[in-house]
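Incident review: delayed structure delivery

Summary: a single-chain prediction request sat in the queue longer than the usual turnaround. Root cause was a stuck worker, restarted by the on-call engineer. No data loss occurred. The affected request and its eventual output are reproduced below so the record is complete for anyone auditing the incident later.

Affected input:
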Amino acid sequence: MLLPKSIAVCEVGLRDGLQGEKKVLSIEQKITLLTRIQDAGIRCIEIGSFVSPKAVPAMADTDTVYRQLSKRPGVDYRALVVNKKGLDRAIDCGVNKVKITLSASETHQRANAGSTPAQMFEQFSLMAASAALNGVTLSGAIATAFGCPFEGEVPISRVIYTVDEFRKIGVNELSLSDTTGMANPVKVYKTCTELLHAYPDVLWNLHFHNTRGMGLANVLAAMQAGITRFDSSLGGLGGCPFAPGATGNIATEDLLHMCSEMGIETGVDLDAIIGSARLLQEYMERELPGAVLKAGKVSDLYQVASC
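Output delivered after worker restart:
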């Protein structure tokens, strides 16, 4: 089995995890979680999004959260933006990396943003010019890259078209998103292998949801294809509020635990992340879906057995 020696993890719980939740965390709670996450060793954190507060109330205070957070050297802080207004807000509060998202499925794109992919790229082109002028790095995400809840199978040609359009505006860091958990390991391996071969200069990232319990299996397939960067969310919280059936992301603590058991380095303190996931669970006042939160680490069993 060909596996990487190490992987990088990006925590998206403060954005993708919270965006669809009815319970809105306070600024203090968000900053506490962000501080714990960066102190645990995670070097990429999605702090929130700059979107309409009416559409996504949980993201209304992203500006304040970013300004008040004590940043750590070497940590990559990014935020989601969907239009020029959101980009302007990100620039105004000092965020130097933003993510823009476009769906490989036109039906999902219309449901998610009320526009076609072609219309969005016209807007993204203008945003890219503004970002470059203000020293902001753009990364991109391709939603429904492995399947669409409205259209079903998404041809690889649609993914390639989207990649090419992103590259035209200067975006070379791209995430493939399994928006509603429709991926399977074989499809993930084939897709990643083809794209890595076609675009060796792109920095690839994978974003899996665990809707049907295949999230970590898909991570393993992506690793074998050569991907080493993955998004995850504390406790497995999250899901797209505009896509039917979109449940939570793969849990950060589950991903880190799997890597630990397999000897894959992450540079992250697993126990600290488990503690942060438990704290988030307290904040949300409900049980979160992460498996390690429920069962504990495998090494915990060894300790019990040796007592």
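Verification: The beta strands are 8-11, 44-50, 76-81, 97-103, 137-143, 173-178, 203-208, 229-232.
Action items: add queue-age alerting; document worker restart procedure.
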